[in-house]
C-alpha cells in the first residue's frame, strides 16, 4: 500500500464520499471537502452522507470540512470529485493551496460545455503546467453506491506518465477494487464523458417502452460513434473496448444507479429535459456533454447520429418518438465502414 500522510477529496457528492470512504478503508487519513456548510455538518454529525450516499458509514479517519485550505494542507493526494462543470472553478480556487508535490486525481466524467475541453485540458490551462506529470484520470464502470459498499469493481487510472498512473493504482487497489492503468488519457476521458449521452438515449428507449433489442442497438452504435470521435481527437481505439469505454457504457446504460439513464426514462415518459433533471435531483452530466459533443462532431466532421438526435431532443424540443424515427429511417450503410482501411480490405475481398 502507498504510504500517504493525507488524502484530500474535494466534493461531497455520492462519488466523492464513496472514494473518501474507500481511501480511509485502505488506511489513509482523509479530509472530505463539502461546498455547503449544512451538508458538511450533517455528514460530520451522522458519519453518513444521508443525502447522496445513504447507508454507508464514514470511518472515523475521514474528516469533513468546508475550509479548502484546511482540507488541502499537507495533502499528498488531491481527488477532484466535483461535477465537470465545476472543475475549473474548484481547481482555480485550490491551485494556490495545492502542495507542490501532490498528485491530482480527477474523477469527473464530462466535457466543459463552453470550451469543449476535456478535464485534463482544463487542468493544463488553469494550472499552467507543462504536462500531466502529476495529473491522473480515474474512470470506469464504478457506481458510488457499490464502491461504498465494497462490492467488486474494476476501474482505470490513466496518465501518459506510468509512474503517476501506477501510484494511483496502488493507492486505490483493494480486495474489492481492482485498478488497471492506461496511458491513453484522451480515450479514457472521452469514453467516460460520451457514454452519458448514450445512457440518456437508452433511458428514453426504456421510457418509451422499447425492449432489449433497441437498448442493445443504441449501446452498440453508440460505442461506434464514441470511437469515431475519439480516434479523430487522438485516442487509441482499443481504449473504447476496455473499462473506460464499453465497460462504463454498459453500466451507465443499464444500471438503476445511473442518473443519465433515469433522466432519459423520465424524458421518454413525457417529461421535459428540465423536469427530468429535477426528478433525478443530482447532476446529470450527459446533458451538458451532449451539447459539447454535438459541437465537437460538427467541428471535426464526425458523424454522430445518436448524439445529434439527443441534442435535438434536449435543446430543440424534438419529441423522443420523432428522434427514433429519424434514427431508424437513416440511409443504408455498412456496420464497420468507419474503420480505417476498410475500403482497402473490402476491395481485396471482392477481387
UniProtKB/TrEMBL annotation:
NADPH binds at residues 14-15, 35-36, 52, 109, 144, 259, 283, 285. Sn-glycerol 3-phosphate binds at residues 109, 140, 142, 195, 248, 258-260. NAD(+) binds at residues 11-16, 144, 259. It comes from the Bacteria. GO terms for molecular function: glycerol-3-phosphate dehydrogenase (NAD+) activity; glycerol-3-phosphate dehydrogenase (NADP+) activity; NAD binding. Its EC number is 1.1.1.94. Keywords: Cytoplasm, Lipid biosynthesis, Lipid metabolism, NAD, NADP, Nucleotide-binding, Oxidoreductase, Phospholipid biosynthesis, Phospholipid metabolism. GO terms for biological process: carbohydrate metabolic process; glycerol-3-phosphate biosynthetic process; glycerol-3-phosphate catabolic process; glycerophospholipid metabolic process; phospholipid biosynthetic process. It catalyses: sn-glycerol 3-phosphate + NAD(+) = dihydroxyacetone phosphate + NADH + H(+); sn-glycerol 3-phosphate + NADP(+) = dihydroxyacetone phosphate + NADPH + H(+). Residues 184-325 form the Glycerol-3-phosphate dehydrogenase NAD-dependent C-terminal domain. This is Glycerol-3-phosphate dehydrogenase [NAD(P)+]. It comes from Desulforudis audaxviator (strain MP104C).
